[in-house]
Amino acid sequence: MPQTKSPLQTLQVAALEEGWNYREQARLGWWPNFIDAQQCQSTWDELNQLVTLEEGFINIYGKRHKIPRLQAWFGDHDYSYSGETLSSKPMVGILATLCERCEQIAETRFNSVLVNYYRDGQDYMGWHADDEDELGTQPVIASLTFGACRDFDLKHKQTGERLRLALSDGSLLVMAGATQHFWQHSLPKRLRLQQPRFNLTFRYIHSMDAD
Ligand SMILES: O=C(O)CCC(=O)C(=O)O
Ligand SMILES: [Fe+2]
């Protein structure tokens, strides 16, 4: 019997090699066991202690909407997006330690980290590229996951090609090169999931102040 393809066929998880991978103008670094299990547990506890999570908002057509997750921002500069400003706190303790480890493996400097907290599978992040002017032309973004494993989708802006990664506890994904220019990414909802997840994205923010 001929095989019929279901239109709802699930996306295959893209098999990335550990280390640097190249896919259609994306440069992706993948270290699935970057933080070991014991350290994941202590890191979770330290993040809970250190991070004051806040509701965030975005403005769409002049209307202010609550974003579907909690967040906090650490680094040298405040962070502005979509008409909102996140005031920064100094990157200290476990955040500074993780920052250094990410800098070493990604071979770059970071001066900020966005902490996202997904309370359960209802929380998500929609399609976007991290392409604000403050991030520079070829931003390197190091994304660390703690807690629940979540699918992470990438979509090529021109061809529509899709990649799906499973971001598990202690994994590190680095998006570099022209990734933000050619691809968008998102973290889809998973309605049956009850466990929370921390995601830390280390970034380098260039000061936009006039000299
Ligand atoms: O939670 C994630 O894995 C994605 C986070 C993200 O894309 C962002 O903070 O810009
Ligand atoms: Fe992002």
Automatic annotation (TrEMBL):
<dbReference type="InterPro" id="IPR027450">
    <property type="entry name" value="AlkB-like"/>
</dbReference>
<keyword id="KW-0560">Oxidoreductase</keyword>
<dbReference type="GO" id="GO:0051747">
    <property type="term" value="F:cytosine C-5 DNA demethylase activity"/>
</dbReference>
<feature type="binding site">
    <location>
        <position position="197"/>
    </location>
    <ligand>
        <name>2-oxoglutarate</name>
    </ligand>
</feature>
<feature type="binding site">
    <location>
        <position position="128"/>
    </location>
    <ligand>
        <name>2-oxoglutarate</name>
    </ligand>
</feature>
<feature type="binding site">
    <location>
        <position position="201"/>
    </location>
    <ligand>
        <name>2-oxoglutarate</name>
    </ligand>
</feature>
<keyword id="KW-0460">Magnesium</keyword>
<dbReference type="Pfam" id="PF13532">
    <property type="entry name" value="2OG-FeII_Oxy_2"/>
</dbReference>
<feature type="binding site">
    <location>
        <position position="185"/>
    </location>
    <ligand>
        <name>2-oxoglutarate</name>
    </ligand>
</feature>
<feature type="binding site">
    <location>
        <position position="118"/>
    </location>
    <ligand>
        <name>2-oxoglutarate</name>
    </ligand>
</feature>
<dbReference type="InterPro" id="IPR005123">
    <property type="entry name" value="Oxoglu/Fe-dep_dioxygenase_dom"/>
</dbReference>
<keyword id="KW-0479">Metal-binding</keyword>
<keyword id="KW-0227">DNA damage</keyword>
<keyword id="KW-0223">Dioxygenase</keyword>
<feature type="binding site">
    <location>
        <begin position="79"/>
        <end position="81"/>
    </location>
    <ligand>
        <name>substrate</name>
    </ligand>
</feature>
<keyword id="KW-0408">Iron</keyword>
<feature type="binding site">
    <location>
        <position position="131"/>
    </location>
    <ligand>
        <name>substrate</name>
    </ligand>
</feature>
<feature type="binding site">
    <location>
        <position position="116"/>
    </location>
    <ligand>
        <name>2-oxoglutarate</name>
    </ligand>
</feature>
<protein>
    <submittedName>
        <fullName>Alpha-ketoglutarate-dependent dioxygenase AlkB</fullName>
    </submittedName>
</protein>
<feature type="domain" description="Fe2OG dioxygenase">
    <location>
        <begin position="109"/>
        <end position="206"/>
    </location>
</feature>
<dbReference type="InterPro" id="IPR037151">
    <property type="entry name" value="AlkB-like_sf"/>
</dbReference>
<dbReference type="InterPro" id="IPR032852">
    <property type="entry name" value="ALKBH2"/>
</dbReference>
<dbReference type="GO" id="GO:0006307">
    <property type="term" value="P:DNA alkylation repair"/>
</dbReference>
<feature type="binding site">
    <location>
        <position position="203"/>
    </location>
    <ligand>
        <name>2-oxoglutarate</name>
    </ligand>
</feature>
<keyword id="KW-0234">DNA repair</keyword>
<dbReference type="GO" id="GO:0008198">
    <property type="term" value="F:ferrous iron binding"/>
</dbReference>
<dbReference type="GO" id="GO:0035516">
    <property type="term" value="F:broad specificity oxidative DNA demethylase activity"/>
</dbReference>
